[in-house]
């Protein structure tokens, strides 16, 4: 299984756009691309718009039909770092949950972009 972990040094630096472009490129080469946004902050869990949710945007542009709960295990309302947002909401982030969801997605796709 091939994959890439896209990272950046700040919010709003283009990680999601780069991921969408990579997904389009690899899909054009015949790859079955899966996407994952392990923790999304600054969005309400009830948000149903791809304009306000990176995870939904990635799902829309890639056409993946995986459950949102697998693509994005954690959605936190505060626009802050994942650790800070979880602290504000009184939630604990469980790395095992993220890894479990990743493995589920990995089993469905020939390539993963995280």
Strand content: 5-15%
CATH structural architecture:
3-Layer(aba) Sandwich
- By helix and strand content, what is the structural category? alpha/beta
Helicity level: 40-55%
* Principal-axes shape call: globular
In short:
With 114 residues, the protein is α/β, with parallel strands linked by helices. The chain contains 5 helices and 5 strands, in the order βαββααβααβ. It has one domain (2-113): P-loop containing nucleotide triphosphate hydrolases (Rossmann fold, 3-Layer(aba) Sandwich), CATH 3.40.50.300.
Model description:
By secondary structure, this protein is α/β, with parallel strands linked by helices. It has one domain: P-loop containing nucleotide triphosphate hydrolases (Rossmann fold). The chain is built from 5 helices and 5 strands, in the order βαββααβααβ. Helix 1 runs parallel beside helix 2.
Keywords:
alpha/beta, three-stranded parallel sheet
Element layout with pairings:
Layout: E1 2-4, H1 15-28, E2 33-35, E3 39-41, H2 54-62, H3 68-71, E4 74-76, H4 82-89, H5 95-108, E5 111-113
Parallel strand pairs: 1-5, 2-5, 3-4
Helix pairs in contact: 1-2
């Amino acid at each position: 299984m091939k994959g890439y972990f896209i990272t950046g040094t700040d919010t709003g630096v283009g990680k999601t756009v780069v991921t969408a472009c990579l997904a389009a490129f690899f899909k054009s080469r015949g790859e079955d691309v899966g996407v994952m946004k392990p923790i999304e902050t600054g969005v309400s869990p009830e948000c149903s718009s791809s304009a306000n949710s990176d995870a939904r945007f990635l799902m829309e542009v890639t056409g993946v039909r995986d459950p949102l709960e697998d693509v994005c295990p954690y959605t936190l309302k505060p626009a802050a770092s994942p650790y800070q947002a979880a602290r504000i909401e009184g939630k604990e982030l469980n790395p095992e949950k993220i890894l479990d969801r990743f493995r589920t997605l990995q089993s469905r796709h020939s390539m993963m972009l995280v």
